[in-house]
Amino acid sequence: MWYAVYIVAHLLLYILILRRLIVFRREIVIFGYHAISFVAVVAVVLAGVALSWAIADLYEAVAIIALHAIYSLSFLEVWSLSEGGYSLQIMEHLALAERQGQPADLEALRAIGSAKQGNRLDGLASVGLVRQTDGAVELTATGRLVATVFAGLAWLTHVRDGV
């Protein structure tokens, strides 16, 4: 039962307070908020299992860890879709222009795309997957490894044929 209270408190803390903070508009901060919570929950439930050595506690621990993983992954996916969707921002821009009785500003739409591309490249560079020099972008050794792994996963799942 403690876990249900914890997860509701975790979600409410974000909804009522944290989402209003500028720092919580960054993907890495949102990820960290959930990663730290997940690690803490795993540590608590595994400590409980280690102290009791009861098989029922092990089952409960697995369920709690799985529920937290589902909660965090779902939250992160919804947040990412709502925050980062280029199509969503285009539709919001068009709806605002329509409400104001004005034509859409195509340059503003292009700027959204350029800003998103720049933010994504900066994010990849900050974690060491790409390097930007003299207006060119290239994969680092780590970036090549990650790209190869994702290409392999895409091939295995037929996400993109010919990868």
Could you list some keywords that capture this structure?
two-stranded antiparallel sheet; 3 domains; mainly alpha; 163 residues; extended; 5% strand
Descriptive account of the structure:
With 163 residues, the chain is mainly α. The protein has 3 domains: 2-84; 86-126, no CATH class; 128-163. Helix content is 75%, strand content 5%. The chain is built from 6 helices and 2 strands, in the order αααααββα. A two-stranded antiparallel sheet has the order 1-2. Helix 4 runs antiparallel to helix 5 (106-126). The longest helix is centred in the middle third of the chain and has 30 residues, at 55-84. It is extended and about 65 Å long. The termini are far apart. The model has no long low-confidence stretch (mean pLDDT 86).
